[in-house]
Amino acid sequence: MSRDVVALVPVMPDVADVLAGMLAAGPELGVRPVQLGPVVQLCDEAGRPLVSIELPVLVQVPGEVERLLGPELAGRVQDPVWWVEARAPSARAGARDPGALARRFADALAERLGGLVWPPEDAG
Hints:
This protein has three helices and seven strands; from the N terminus they run E-H-E-E-E-E-H-E-H-E. By secondary structure, it is an alpha+beta fold. Strands 1, 2, 3, 4, 5, 6 and 7 form a seven-stranded antiparallel beta sheet that branches. It starts with a strand and ends in a 6-residue tail after the last strand.
């Protein structure tokens, strides 16, 4: 099962913003594009994908973020908002935790651009 972490930010992230988030996730990680898709992956030294980062999407419909992620976000997200999703596979025994890497990426992006991250840190 994968773990999704979403950064919700008020401005479109530029290349420098995304790179800063990637560095926060792990400066030793490799980066590769996914063919035929708007996705880049952070990979370990063996080239195994640890986190897939999707192209930012502008969500313009009022209430759409709350509908998709839950009512606890009501009043916390201004429309429109940029949705940047980082998806991590389940952790393998003896390996680093991809979910924690995805979280570090999203946290860094939200901090840099003044947004928030879903799920909340205490949601696990």
